[in-house]
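Structure in, sequence out. Go:
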């Protein structure tokens, strides 16, 4: 394979201007997700912060990304990693101040990088002023009407209104001192808001304007499919609830048709800005329903998790890509692609575990329950496949979402001690599920130090010894490293990217190689087989692994430019 031009290190690297119209920047953007508490710690308290992110903007520039998505940085008790929000229009003092946020936005924008922030509209925290007011107010009060309060069942209302289970395990209802119950589809510290309440709707419109006025370019909408609820009359038992991804509008609290009315109001806010603000929905719904969230009159874009859930299998990748592109064809939105995020086992680990037959791949949860020892993990194979999958994903039309640390080839930290875990999933499941902390361990920036350069002291989650060789310092400028592969891929993607079109190569439906062609002669070929395979005609400009005698080796992707 011809050598790829040397990629400069972090220092002195500049961002190439984005040639796309400013209002369409999101359609084929590469967005880098930052979990702020685990990205960079500027003050040594063991928790990442906004100044830490700002200090690493040169690194983000060196990657060649278009935007960052910053997970919640609002005041929070951290009952769910910041997704339990005390105040939607402020910064957690442990992470900084509003002035620090403004400085981060200014620094990113000066570097040509846009910023997307998380918005958490399904629930507040139980420390939010509204909820404290509701607890102090009587039944039937305006304060309680902002949330979902119900009378209990059984003698003296001592039983919950229904036997519904929360997403994190355990009952979805919590009793308050005067005997009423409130709904929390997640943790008890996350009471659900009542989106039929006009005051709730208006307050969130104010929040959207607050951050848009501060320069935020877009919003990632948490649990976008959960806001609208139908809770009138007798509540059905848990056993009679339809599967959320199959309900298609009939579930009492997931993916209700009425949710589009909420986002139509949000769209009016977004379009009042120039350029219009963007949004992307986290909506775990049937694929046919995603268009309702991603419409031009709604949020505009929705996460597509199908590729993330697919196993390392040519047929699964082919089908997922084909169906995903068909769903967005002719619509106002573009496809989104993601392989890792803050809620799932990292894809380098998933691909290194024994693969599960069928349309859904290995999710790694059983491996986590075994503290990272069983089933056996092939770390080298997992990383090799992860690199190949990433190159394939970055060649697809649409926007790509990267999760912090994947550019270092990080695996999930599966052996975190139980007493160090912070995810409520572990506690609420009585230890049956180890939770999501393994993908949230603070990043390694240097080969040594008390927290591998994450900060001047320790880190809020234990880091394994193998983080040193996987650190930014160890990989920066090292030929063949995963970090340099990402840098080269993103630089080439920017040069090769054109219209949102894809054409499968003739043998895409058969054989071990999955290959497709983009406009301008850009071809991506991935070998899912066990033996080297011929490459398409043209010049190889990048590969996830070295070629073998001019052939595409197993578990490898190559980008070819037709002559």
């Amino acid at each position: 394979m011809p050598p790829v031009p040397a990629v400069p290190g972090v220092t002195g690297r500049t961002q190439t201007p984005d040639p796309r119209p400013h209002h369409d920047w999101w359609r084929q953007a590469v967005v880098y997700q930052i979990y702020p508490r685990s990205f960079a710690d500027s003050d040594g308290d063991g928790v990442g912060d906004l100044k830490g992110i700002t200090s690493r903007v040169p690194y983000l520039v060196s990657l060649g990304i278009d935007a960052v998505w910053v997970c919640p940085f609002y005041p929070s008790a951290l009952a769910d990693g910041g997704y339990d929000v005390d105040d939607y229009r402020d910064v957690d003092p442990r992470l900084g101040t509003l002035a620090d946020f403004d400085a981060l936005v200014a620094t990113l924008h000066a570097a040509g990088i846009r910023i997307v922030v998380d918005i958490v509209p399904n629930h507040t925290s139980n420390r939010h002023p509204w909820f404290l007011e509701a607890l102090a107010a009587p039944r039937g009060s305006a304060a309680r009407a902002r949330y979902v309060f119900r009378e209990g069942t059984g003698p003296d209302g001592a039983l919950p209104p229904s036997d519904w289970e929360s997403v994190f395990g355990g009952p979805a209802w919590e009793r308050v001192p005067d005997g009423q119950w409130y709904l929390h589809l997640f943790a008890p510290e996350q009471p659900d808001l009542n989106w039929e309440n006009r005051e709730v709707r208006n307050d969130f419109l104010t929040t959207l304007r607050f951050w848009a006025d501060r320069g935020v370019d877009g919003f990632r909408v948490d649990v976008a499919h959960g806001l609208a609820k139908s809770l009138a009359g007798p509540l059905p038992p848990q056993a009679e609830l339809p599967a959320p991804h199959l309900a298609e509008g009939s579930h009492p609290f997931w993916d209700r048709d009425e949710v589009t009315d909420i986002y139509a109001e949000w769209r009016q806010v977004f379009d009042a800005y120039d350029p219009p603000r963007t949004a992307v929905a986290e909506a775990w719904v049937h694929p046919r329903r995603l268009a309702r969230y991603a419409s031009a009159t709604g949020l505009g874009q929705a996460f597509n998790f199908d590729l993330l859930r697919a196993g390392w299998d040519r047929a699964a990748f082919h089908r997922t890509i084909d169906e995903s592109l068909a769903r967005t064809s002719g619509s106002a939105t573009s496809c989104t692609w993601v392989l890792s995020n803050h809620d799932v086992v990292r894809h380098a680990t998933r691909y290194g575990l024994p693969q599960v037959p069928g349309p859904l791949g290995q999710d790694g949860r059983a491996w986590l329950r075994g503290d990272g020892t069983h089933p056996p993990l092939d770390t080298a194979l997992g990383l090799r496949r992860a690199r190949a999958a990433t190159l394939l994903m970055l060649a697809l039309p649409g926007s790509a979402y990267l999760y912090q640390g994947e550019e270092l080839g990080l695996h999930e930290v599966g052996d975190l001690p139980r007493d160090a875990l912070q995810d409520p999933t572990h506690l609420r499941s009585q230890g049956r599920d180890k939770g999501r902390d393994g993908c949230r361990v603070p990043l390694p920036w240097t080969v040594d130090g008390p927290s591998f350069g994450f900060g001047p002291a320790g880190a809020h989650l234990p880091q394994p010894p193998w983080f040193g060789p996987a650190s930014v310092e160890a990989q920066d400028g090292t030929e063949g490293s995963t970090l340099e592969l990402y840098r080269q891929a993103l630089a080439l993607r920017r040069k090769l990217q054109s219209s949102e079109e894809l054409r499968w190569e003739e043998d895409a439906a058969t054989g071990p190689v999955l290959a497709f062609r983009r406009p301008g002669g850009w071809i991506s070929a991935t070998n899912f087989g066990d033996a080297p395979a011929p490459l398409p005609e043209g010049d190889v400009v990048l590969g996830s692994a070295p070629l073998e005698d001019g052939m595409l080796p197993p578990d490898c992707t190559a980008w070819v430019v037709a002559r």
